[in-house]
Each structure stands twice: as structure tokens, then as C-alpha cells.
Amino acid sequence: MTEATQARPRLFSGERQYENFARMGDFYPTAPLKPSSAPRPWPRGEALELPEHFDFEGAQRSTAALLEATDTSALLVLQDGALRHESYFLNGSETTRWISWSVAKSFTSALVGIALERGLIRSIEDPISAYVPAMAGSAYDGVAIRDVLQMSSGARWVEDYTDPESDVNRLGAVMAGLATLDDFVCGIEREAPPATVCRYNSGETQALGMLLRAATGRSVADYMQTELCEPLGFQ
User: Fold this and answer.
1) Which of 16, 54, 140, 183 is surrounded by the most beta carbons within 10 Å?
2) CA dist., res. 39 & res. 65, Å (int)
3) Mind telling me the catalytic residues?
């Protein structure tokens, strides 16, 4: 096990993950986002109670047992845009801050689309390295933005959360400050020609973050604040 592996929080150890995921600011640098000046809370519909049991694979299962076995900390039920059920367990609450994990990928790709519409990115057929010169010589050198958005850049990547030396776990060490995200992304090597292999790759989102920063001249958090949080009425 490398020094970097030993130094970082073991977020994917499988033990009491919900405690770590609710206090990521204790482990990593963060950039706070403010609520919208015109918040738009979810409308509430008629209250809906969860069923005691549900059918799965021909057997009746306990809803409470499922929630306990999966360490579920929060459960919301939305129907037709209205909030009909809201429950919290373990250390969850209405005000608990949770890391979004790969939900952030959707926000990042939306921001790329907004920057494209604003003319800050000319085309998603442009090579991402044309906006981020530091990517020259890396897996992203000459790769179209479209391929990075589709996780088909051809970059070598292992998204194995059980392997402490996998790329995604090394990314955790970088987030903890053992290196810079820019250097990490620019050190990723190519494994296949672009647009030939689709592979789930959290490093691609970091590359898109570098693109946004270069194209907009702003941090991803700042750009998201004005382009998504404010107009969408984030609470």
C-alpha cells in the first residue's frame, strides 16, 4: 500500500460510510455554494406512507429491513413534481449535507452545455486540449470534448472502489491535497483511440472541470452558483 493510500480517508472501506459522506468538509477542501436569492422549495403533495412490505423475486420483503441493510439515511418520494414522503434514518436529517458523488457529473455536463450556448466553448468537436494546454501529452491531448462528455476519451482508468490502488481511489488521495487535480488529470495515459471504448471514468469529470475553468475564467463552483443554483432556485 502506498503512502498516498495510507494518508487518505478510507471512504470506500464499507464501514459506516454514511458518517464520512455527511462530513466531507472535514476531509477535503470545499467551495461553498449559497442558496438562491429566490428559492423554489419542492411543492408538497398528499402525505404517502411507505408500505410495510414489497414484492421482490417472488417473495415479500420488509421495507424496514431493506432500509437498515442498505444504511439508508434519507428517503424522499416525489410524484408528479410534488414531495409526498420524507424520512430520515441514522445520521440523516433535512439539513444534513451529503456529498452528491456522481450527481455532480450531471451538473458538470450541464455547465459545459451552458458555456457552449454562451459561446465560451466554440464546439464540442473541439479538442479539450485546445482550451487546456496543460493536457498536451496526456490522454486528453487532441480528444474532442464530445468524447470526454461521453466517457469515451480512451483514457486508461480503473473505477474499482474495492482496490485501494485503483485510479478512483488515487483520485481520493488527490482530493485530500496530496497532489493537484490538474496534475492528476494531465498524468492520465491513453489506452485506446478516442471514441472507440466507453468506460465509466470519474477522471473525465475532472477534465471537464478544467475545461470549464479555462473557458469561463471562473471556478466551477462560481459558475454553477450563477448559472444553476440561482436560476433554478436551489435552497
Assistant:
1) 140
2) 36
3) 102
